[in-house]
Amino acid sequence: MVTPRSPGIDSEVKGTKIIRIDPSRPEIESIRKAANIIRKGGTVAFPTETVYGLGADALNPEAVMKIFKAKERPPDNPIIVHISSGDWIRRLGREVPRNFWKLNDRFWPGPLTMVLRASDIVPRVTTGGLDTVAIRMPSHRVASALIQESAVPIAAPSANLAGRPSPTTAEHVINDLAGRIDLILDAGPTNVGVESTVVDLTTDPPMMLRPGGTTYEELRDVLGGLSLHPSVQARTEPHIERALSPGMKYRHYAPKAEVILIEGNPDAMVGKIRELAKEYSSDGKKVGILAFEESIYEYSNATVKSMGSMVDLKTAAKRVFSLLRELDEEGVDVILAEGMPERGLGLAVMNRLRKASGYRIMEI
Ligand code: TXA
Ligand code: MG
Q: Is 77 in the pocket of ligand 1 (CB under 6 A)?
């Protein structure tokens, strides 16, 4: 379905245009094309430092509705509003607490989203009907150039179909959304790999709603007090003995394959995964394993993917979503994932893996 190039457009898939763009020095003509689409109420997928986002004019309700439709996103799930300069803050937020400025000084631009009370100019379509608005200033040059050139704040959820792993490359976006959106800016793989951390500043103390690229520890050091929403570390389902029972309800970040997360001390974890891999393969299932470098050679009879070293979880964060998609493409039936400590980026990666597993978690 790839059609030949027209000037300035690298390719087109099912009517969605794709432009390759330099992540460090985005070509201004390409940014202008994308910004024109945003200003006219269209949809553009673009890279941020975390994951690719699906953008539209945040102040135009009809444009924002196109995002919900393309993603098949439930209308009560609010969308983050992206800005490229501080000028917009007082226009979007009704009250801007001191903590906002503290976090702004330390973490913006970057993988942090802050929730404030919303002003009247923010359409309630964008906020999923809430009276609060989530705001983020991304550091990726393509993202900030696009926002600046569009001259409006850009509403952008992750550019995946609802329920699927977030996209860290343009190919992931094409797989989910080609034919549903106007344009994709392809700047190669993103750097952080998990989405931004979401912090609600309308409560005292502030509350982390979603762990992400900015760590709990870093935020707490600046804020003094920071509570964690119970969903951040939820293991909704009780610990499952042998996680073969199908049809667990809520799934998110989910590949097509069944995911089982194994948590515990590294040696016991490896032993359990070896045992499970053997059982599943003898049942005729194709097994994928998400493992750390330290234990990768312990496994056989499986498609093994590395999350990097357990000592530095940056690589795990960067790769987790794309490895889930890769294993799907390789046709595995079951993915067995090694757990990790919930410190630093480990809090975000474990949160994503627990959700991807539909809470099929084995603690040993
Ligand atoms: O890194 C990211 O945050 C990426 C890139 C594109 O910026 N965006 C992203 O958006 O992950 P999305 O829609 O996939 O996730 C946004 C999260 C959702 O969990 C949503 O419920 C929450 O932020 N959120 C948005 N607005 C909110 C609000 N007003 N109050 C509470 N939570 C909110
Ligand atoms: Mg998302």
A: yes
